[in-house]
């Protein structure tokens, strides 16, 4: 597929999520294998006392699926929820209504100034929308800079394999999972969105970029085929 102009691509991503925001929550469990396990693994890996008032940022909050799990486990945390799509963020606003310590920021990652001295940055299924490898590396440096010493970054998202056979296996598994839940047209649509809007990194590149960004410890704490929770401590 020919490369799309970055501004056009961002427009597509925002437009697509705006249209899908009300059905997103019901749909995503049929599109992403083990989505809920992946979120549980991400939240379970956060190494702070559950009563601590940790300062947290969730990047690409969407309807708030990861953020609500962070808030459930760390009720005293302060949570900044960032997303560029108003409809998605509105769903999260509704979900969090009545809870203290939540802020919402409608902002594109490319224009985002992260607040300093955070304890934790989390993200799920969102940083794939950073277009180039360099965009990801730059953003990981920004994330590392905003964390206090010992702060943690947890990113739950899919990765590519460097091996063609393994990559083909990932795609077969993913297609089969979706076909168990969706019809052919819906599966084709999901693949088309994936090819148009997502840029997955190779896992080994990603781990290297995190180290280069300034994280002292980097690991993968959960993985199931293409789904992987990356974990990094400053
Ligand atoms: C697939 S959803 C993931 C939502 C949620 N984290 C989850 O796990 O269900 C991706 C979200 O990232 C947001 N997003 C994508 N690119 C973005 C960007 N450049 N800046 C800010 N938000 C972005 C979209 O608006 C969307 O809500």
Helix/sheet category: alpha/beta
| Low-confidence spans | none
Going by CATH, what is the homologous superfamily? Vaccinia Virus protein VP39
- Overall morphology: globular
CATH architecture: 3-Layer(aba) Sandwich
CATH topology: Rossmann fold
CATH class: Alpha Beta
What's the count of strands? 7
What count of helical segments does DSSP give? Answer: 8
Terminal Cα span: 37 Å
Radius of gyration: 17 Å
Strand order of the largest sheet: 3-2-1-4-5-7-6
Overall mean pLDDT stands at: 96
Percent strand: 15-25%
List the bound ligands. S-adenosylmethionine
Which keywords apply here?
alpha/beta, 48% helix, seven-stranded mixed beta sheet, binds S-adenosylmethionine, Rossmann fold, 234 residues, 8 helices
How would you characterize the overall build of this protein?
By secondary structure, this protein is α/β, with parallel strands linked by helices. The chain has a single domain (6-233), classed as Rossmann fold. The protein has eight helices and seven strands; from the N terminus they run ααβαβαββαβαααββ. Strands 3-2-1-4-5-7-6 form a seven-stranded mixed β-sheet, sandwiched between helices. β1, α3 and β2 form a beta-alpha-beta unit. α5 (133-146) crosses α8 (203-213). The mean pLDDT is 96. The chain binds S-adenosylmethionine (SAM). The site of S-adenosylmethionine has 19 residues, from α1 and α3.
